[in-house]
Design brief:
heterodimer; A: Rossmann fold; about 50% helix; globular; B: about 150 residues; Alpha-Beta Plaits; 4 strands
Amino acid sequence: MSKILIYPTNSLVLADLVDRFGHEPLTIPQEIRKKVTSVGLDSPPLNITPEDPKIGLKYAAVEVPSGVRGRMSLIGPLLEKADAAVVVNDPEATFGCMGCARTNELVNFLIRAKKIPMLELPYPTNEDDARDFVYKIAEFLQSSEVLKHE
Amino acid sequence: MEDADDVSKKDVITKLIVLSSRHMMPGDLLYKIYALRKDVIVKETCFGAEVSGKKEDVNSLIRDIRILDPYGIFIKERGFPIGDLRRCRATSGGGARPGFHQIEVEAAALPLMSRALLEYDMGVKPTTHEKPAKLDVDVFKKIIADCLHSL
């Protein structure tokens, strides 16, 4: 089972497809769960502490807004664990943790800089696109470049 | 050092089950989950259900649930526990909880995904569509010249 980073990292469709084809999707709720379910909250209610933007410093310079660094403190660890990535390059809408355009640009850059196997494709809008979307993801997840990490 | 309670809490995961099924409504899904007699907390929602429990229990439940409608059930993880006051609409003054909007947008594509997954399992290969070629610069220049000329 390889660890597959998905982008958008809170996507239902991508998380489900990766799981369905036998791999572990790396999604942002995993990181959020660790924060919000820890006993002894340091910084209620969401437990985002001053340490988080510091973790984000590993990925973005100090001049970068703390929102980007804070988000990178969640997405960065996922990126480091990733064996491969599935990227939707024109998501219609991104919400929540994915709602910052600059962070999204940085994440896309870092995925490419890591030089891991990556599949890039657009969101499906019609039946033909959906068939193509599922087929490409399935073939990618069963390809040797992804399976070699198992 | 982490205490035992902290460690056990970290093992607890929550998953969202989103339905796009012709055969099953959220109420039916709930009865099926109850029938599996797993040690999990379940909540029925407008889009399907949420289940929370120990990682191994939830994952084994998910495997059993998928079999009920392999092309109509979509699952993803949720960060917050079920009924968490920080996310629950009952305590936040109404409106959709953060995170619902992403599901709402993607739910529109789920019928397409269901059909595509079925066809993939049936071995249907996607039809390749040639992308329209980009407009040649010289042709574009001619169009501009024609437009300017006609003004």
